[in-house]
């Protein structure tokens, strides 16, 4: 009798275990697609004579789409369910890929990037919360470290994988502005199928709360939330630089026109971030914050040195250091919010954190794009690095006073 009674529970647990990996795959594919165009921007720029500022505008449309989505829809999975929002988000990524294929002119690029950003805004917080809950149902006695590691690896790892795949296909396969999108269309459809068979983890109530846009603080935990937000802001500022203007700099100032090289440098930044997050799972938040602030600051200084010396190896080293620092900081931010937020408002709080993070993706990149219209790219990068190092120092001081 005992075995018979436990069998349904074991079956449900296995479904949650399989669902965990389906959602992780969907999260990885969605995030990889979002950075797929990174090494392709130089091709668009060469084809249509785009300036660096136009490229930053195209990139900013993606980040604006994410921010708008986080404001309007990033938190509604707490009411309507995780699966519905994840599938809808993947559907928007599919629509974006179709626009890239059918409307490859500047207005189409802007529309495709905005739609992709809107989908990613729905996906990030929702998939992070869903993975956390699926893990809890599958392994109720285990800590949340596994779900945090996998969700961050899918998020940051996907962001790094996209440029690597895009750069490889653009360099070695005919149709560099077609084949990458066709490949990811197939992967996105496969991800939708996988998520459709995943268990829901939110009880959808017949009556829902009155809809309100997400506030940056959301359900965050006061001062602790804003410390996490400051860490996420600086982390995503580095990510923004390497997914927007850095590939153009690699192709121009560093004389490395190979598309795979541009994608590989961006991949190294995100790979370093993912490895740093995995390596710090047992460190205290205070230590992780200190390491992250130091590594990102040093990495920014090395990047400036690389630009002054026109050195590709130094540029790669600086990107790896800055990426590792960003990884330390972002893991600390995610862990702080997950640990301090009740399950009923976890999606809302994560959406608020990602909103602050993606503001960090928009503002510095736009500032950099504007700056290079009046000063050299090196001078613009020096100015951005000084601002970010000041923020990192303020983060250190605030964290010590917490």
TrEMBL record:
PROSITE patterns (UniProt xref): MFS
Record-annotated membrane-spanning stretches: 20-44, 50-73, 85-104, 110-131, 152-173, 179-205, 225-254, 260-277, 289-308, 314-338, 350-372, 378-397
InterPro entries, alphabetized: MFS, MFS_dom, MFS_trans_sf, MFS_Transporters
Pfam assignment, any one: MFS_1
Localization (cell): Cell membrane
Record bears the keyword DNA-binding: no
Higher taxonomy: Bacteria, Bacillati, Actinomycetota, Actinomycetes, Micrococcales
Originating organism: Brevibacterium ammoniilyticum
Membrane topology per record: Multi-pass membrane protein
Residue stretches making up the Major facilitator superfamily (MFS) profile domain: 18-402
Keywords: Cell membrane, Membrane, Transmembrane, Transmembrane helix, Transport
PANTHER family with a match to the protein in the record: MAJOR FACILITATOR SUPERFAMILY MFS_1, RESISTANCE PROTEIN MDTM, PUTATIVE-RELATED-RELATED
Designated name of the protein: MFS transporter
